[in-house]
Amino acid sequence: MSVNKGQNARALVEPLALDSRTLGDGDLSALALSHNNEQYSSNDFEAFANIQAELECMNAEEVMTTDEEHIIIGRNIETETIVPDVEMTEVSEQAQEEHIIYTTANQNNQNIVFQTKPTLQRLPASTVQVKSNVGQVTQSQSIMIVSPAGGQGTSQILKISHPSTASAGQLQSLAQTLITAKSADNIVQLRSAQPNKPVMATSHSGNITLGSVQNAKTVQSAIKRTAQSTSQNRNVYTKMILAGNQTPSGQVLITSSQNENQQTQAIKFLNNSTSSQDVTSPAKTITLAQAQQMGLLSTNKVQHILPSSPQKQGIIVNKLVQSSSSQTSKMTLVPSNTIKSPTKILPAPTMNTQVKTSTISNQQSTFSSSNKSTVQQSPQKVIIRQSSLKPGTVLGSGQVIRIPANQNIVTGSNQVHQIQMPSRQVQYVRLVSTPSSGTTNVVTVGKTKSQTTLQTVGVGQKLGGQQQIVKVVPLNTNNQSLRTVAPKATLTGSGQRLLIPATATVSNQSKNAVAIPASALSQLASGQAVLSTNSNVGNIVVLPAQYIQQQSADDAKLKSQQATPGLLSNSQNLQSSTGTISVGSVLENKTSQRSYTSVEPNGIRPRKPCNCTKSQCLKLYCDCFANGEFCHMCNCNNCSNNLGNEEERQRAIKSCLERNPNAFRPKIGKGRETGDDIRRHNKGCNCKRSGCLKNYCECYEAKIPCSANCKCIGCRNVEEPNLEKKSLKDLAEAAEVRTAQLTLNKTKLQLSEMAFRPPATSNTGARQPFNFLTDKVVQITCECLMAQADEAERNMFDDETSQRLIIEEFGRCLKEIIESAHKAEAT
DNA sequence: GAGTTTGAAACT
DNA sequence: CAGTTTCAAACTC
Predict the structure, then answer these.
(1) Element (H, E) at A176
(2) How many Å does it take to go from CA A658 to C1' C7?
(3) pLDDT per position as a tens digit, A770-804
(4) How far from chain centre, in Å, is Cα A787?
(5) Number of neighbours of residue A572 by Cβ within 10 angstroms
């Protein structure tokens, strides 16, 4: 492990080395946005976004290379100890230091402040701020690098000023140099993108040094992290806050569109006036992938994210759209770092190929911070990243939940997972991912031969060609009833289920962001809850983009691993561990929902919502509860099967287990017979009237024939009359015939025995023949007649023949009765 | 959509 | 363990 740490330390600084090896100033210049206007436009901020993204990538120990217009980002294989810290975006009042105010247009002066926030005690994240004073008629443009020294709150400012004559492009180029800035452990490295003036600024331990290098390629940072073992010192998170101060509430829109041919991506920042009354400065986070799916990605900017290591990793780019009076918007770019579960960079949907202009003024953000509280418009983001840090570490302004990489929260069930974290509030994360047997994560977004391959921002893993998406949405733990936000219409078609706080609109959920290591996410089983210790952290629920495919084709196998609801089972393997993880917005969800059908690709249908009214969804009557799932988007009343009633829920679970230890085990399993792949109902049904041919019958509902376990009456749920199996059916029918015949014979025998039984006597002691017609005798006689009728029916006799046989049988019965009477009288 | 039927689960 | 009741889904109209 110590060796790994050393490697990690190396890996931490390696990106720069690689960067210098692969990047040239010209390349960096290429990153600059091409615009003739000296005034910053949305393109400029797109460039900033690119910078941010790149910086994130750097923080994520990625290797970035540029190839002309393309930024190729590759990740170094990373050991666990070097995993970036989980990032948590924070908004609201604390944003005064972190918000980037930029002018949207029409300014001749541009002040850009890049602030690095080295390793604060609680927020080991580097913050990059791009600040642009609006309305000030300054003739200078500057880039400031603000680096708090040693996390003590004292900022040191490195201001790189340049003449007012500097064009926006130049400034932009200079800004581009910051892409290599790395604030991990108080290390900031800057390099100028300008070919003739490469500049490197290094901040170490709070000290910032500025130097020039003639060749950017020589920029190699041998600086090693001095506090490798201290997770607090890891600055792996870079946050870029962009705020348009010309509008009451700045809006940041990251737009990108993917053209299958061009495969380009752009980030756009949009200002959009909103009437949001939010005071809490809610932040909205979206991924670029989401933006892509929203069709917001433009093609004028190309960003390539190319995995350069065998372990491909994706990048999560989250954007926080903040619609509040704080006039700030926050964009969070979070590198995703997965070790064993490389994330996949999701390609933008083809539907989003339209090119959007980057005009700020007229851009209308789909993510507008309007008062609309729909999830689609105000998606909450949860950042899931891999982290090797010790469990329970809270990162970032109390809004980061780190799921320790070593914390095994893998289960095979679709349950809310609880992650114990040393502190106050409990975080639940419900991870619903698609199980997959695949073990290889392929990043579909890669540099293609033409190098025009796109990149996507977002975290995704692709398995077996099947896209798997894990969605994370905030969950309200306080509520008693989770509010269903998704349109009901989509319910049946998708299975997509979202939990959002019932007490607040999405737009106010700025603090409900949780960063989870991608690796941890990949290990999380669906529906698991993550316990967080941070009181500030909102409640997060991670939900499946595809409604849980926890039931794989190997249903029995999977279900055998199903955990008791709310209970963790570390021993269980998560089949989705290698599944694609994508942090998407609801918008993305919405898009995904379209593709969803009532039946999952694996043939598993999404669970239907329950309609419980009296059971509080805490009894096995409730399918949700019985399946160990939280009610979500159900129609139940007074539901307690949610996070807000976890205690009660646990009690109910316990009660059920007391009654039946196997209560939460799958009812459908495989037959014990060797090689018998026939699914069986473990308990069997008890149908009496349905003939096991209606969905009342659990066997029939599961589309499995009744078995010996069943106690059903009149079962007709037998094997399909396949040619091969017909013999079995014939045997069954023959057996039934034999059984009926035996029943008839038995009845006759009983009648005979009754007949020979000592007759009833009168009060006088005289035996009376009518006394033989006891109720028992009558009953048996009727049974004989019925048995005869059944036999006639079975033999397909016509009515006349059947009636004749029945009458004959009745005659026979009477004969026996009479004979019995005679015998009794004789004796 | 309301009412009925059904069978599993819960209860006694 | 059996009988009864409760419950929610399935079904019917």
Answers:
(1) helix A168-177
(2) 20
(3) 456 677 777 778 888 888 888 888 788 888 888 88
(4) 59
(5) 19
Cα separation, A565 vs A620, in Å, equals 12
Predicted pLDDT of residue A490: 35
CA angle A766, A771, A774 (to 5 degrees): 155
At A15, list the tokens.
């990106």
Q: What is the DSSP string of A625-673?
A: HHTT----S---SS---SGGGHHHHHHHHHHHHHH-TTTTS-SEEE-SS
**How do the domains of chain A map onto residue ranges?**
667-718, 735-826
Separation between Cα atoms, residue A267 and residue A41, nearest integer Å: 12
Q: Which nucleotide is nearest to A697 (CA to C1')?
A: B7
Find the nucleotide nearest A699 (Cα to C1′).
Answer: B7
**Per-residue flag: A658 CB under 7 A of strand B:** no
Tell me: the pLDDT tens digits for A239-294?
333 333 333 333 333 333 333 333 333 333 333 333 333 333 333 333 344 434 43
* Predicted pLDDT of residue A509: 35
Given a contact cutoff of 8 angstroms between Cβ atoms, the answer to whether A284 and A318 are in contact is no
> Is A612 a residue whose pLDDT tops 80?
yes
**Secondary structure of residue A141 in the 3-state scheme:** strand
User: How many Å apart are A335 CA and C10 C1'?
Assistant: 49
- At A449, list the tokens: 């031969």
Write out pLDDT tens, residues A426-474. 334 444 333 333 333 333 233 333 333 333 333 333 333 333 333 333 3
Integer distance in angstroms from CA A635 to C1' B2? 17
In this structure, is the CB of residue A612 within 7 Å of any atom belonging to strand B? no
> How high is the mean pLDDT of chain A?
46
Q: Is the Cβ atom of A660 within 7 Å of strand B at any atom?
A: yes
Q: If you write DSSP's letter for every residue of A724-741 in order, what string do you get?
A: TTHHHHHHHHHHHHHHHH
pLDDT, position A803: 86
Rg (chain A; Cα; Å): 35
Asked if A776 CB < 7 A from strand B, the reply is: no
| CA separation for the pair A286, A366 (Å, rounded) | 11
Residue A653 (CA) to nucleotide C6 (C1'), in angstroms, measures: 19
Question: A101-102 and A125-129: which strand pairing?
Answer: unpaired
Please give residues of chain A from 705 to 734 whose alpha-adjacent beta carbon (CB) lies under 7 Å from any atom of strand B: none
Mean pLDDT value across residues A46-64: 44
- Give the residue among A563, A374, A555 at the shortest CA–CA distance from A473: A374
Q: Which of helix, strand or coil describes residue A523?
A: helix
Q: Which residues touch strand C (CB under 7 A)?
A: A 608, 610-615, 617, 619, 621-623, 694-696, 701
Contact A73, A317 (CB under 8 A): no
Residue A324: what are its φ and ψ, rounded to 5°? Answer: -155, 175
E-only strand ranges, A537-644 = 540-544
pLDDT tier for residue A617 given thresholds of 50, 70 and 90: very high
